[in-house]
Amino acid sequence: MGRPKAWLPFAGEIMLPRVVRLLRQVVSPIVVVAAPEQDIPPLPDEVRIIRDEEKGRGPLQGLAAGLTALAGTADAAYLTSCDVPFLQPAFVRRLITKPARLTYNRDALVILSMIGGVVGTELLAEAFEFAAHGDQPGAFVAAALAVPLRALFAPDVLQVAFAILWWAHIALVAAFLVYLPFSKHLHIATSFPNIWFRKLSPRGELPKMDLEDETATFGLKTLQDLGWKDVLDGFTCTECGRCQEACPAYNTGKPLNPKTMIMGIRDLAEAAEQTIDIIPNSPIVRETHGLPAPIPAGAAMAAPLVDGIMPYEAVWDCVTCGACVEACPVLIEHVDKIVGIRRNLVLEESRFPQVTQSQTAS
Ligand code: SF4
Ligand code: SF4
Q1: Class of domain 223-361 (CATH, top level)
Q2: pTM above threshold 0.90
Q3: Pocket lining: 262 vs ligand 1, CB cutoff 6 Å
Q4: What is the 132 CA–ligand 1 centroid distance (Å)?
Q5: pLDDT tens digit sequence for 43-68
Q6: Cα separation of 349 and 239, whole Å?
Q7: Which residue of 7, 209, 218, 329 sits 20 to 30 Å from the alpha carbon of 57, by its own alpha carbon?
């Protein structure tokens, strides 16, 4: 291309400053390793520039120099060349910096791998298809990838590669659809109805109680006291942790965590779901595979919310500020559930902290 990679223009920027700009969003400190006399574009002051000790000893020497410069300042390092214009800060954040608010588990990695596989196989299948049969208007990325493929491979090879990649894509989509209902990624299906059926009354408004009704139960005690929208909230949680990050109680070290509370609703609901005689929980399946009998449906539905979705102390930590609700991208309603649990503890169990008792008495 006639220019060093670090100086290549891309989307109105120079390549190396662009990559540094993207990385600065998610990692610190940043070390750039260059050859002894290499000319590099201007970079922000806090970026350290390290020079290889000798010329022409390959990329491993550069990696060693960069890691040596980072020694003692970081627990993990993200290594990259400078020619990655499509670098995604979110990718680096998920794998390296890992903010405390996010939940890291195998489910998340399986989902990310499947999404990457679905998108990657479709893109490559199209590139091979275009190389074998000609471009289609508008698909400029696949068309660009098809150019070198056309030059490198015979038409037969291109067609076979297209068929393999296309069927791999179909198989991955099918596997993804089967996996989806059992994963936290179910929120891609539940988010829309959850937002559609969001609470429209003022945020602080609570359901009225008929205190004169002697048969009424008050507040939320067990799973079956939750409404369908509360359970939908549980299945819609993306585990992004924004509510946790916004919560003043959590941030001052109290046991309350609005994120785990909502995840707890989903866990209780899933446990109750195991009691329903549907595939794969039907008696026939259980008998065939020697699976243990499910817990009785009544016991599952009577699972207590206190200590089931949040500890007793946490119920009283909430200041009902609504910051969690405000921060939630899928409009989950946390406060009404916490207040509902409090109502039950106060009105049905007379169980509340000492300080509240003395305030009520005065
Ligand atoms: S309403 Fe309660 S749970 Fe939500 S952010 Fe405020 S203190 Fe935390
Ligand atoms: S902000 Fe909403 S989606 Fe994110 S973890 Fe909290 S409840 Fe779940």
Answers
A1: mainly alpha
A2: no
A3: no
A4: 58
A5: 999 999 988 877 777 778 888 888 88
A6: 32
A7: 7
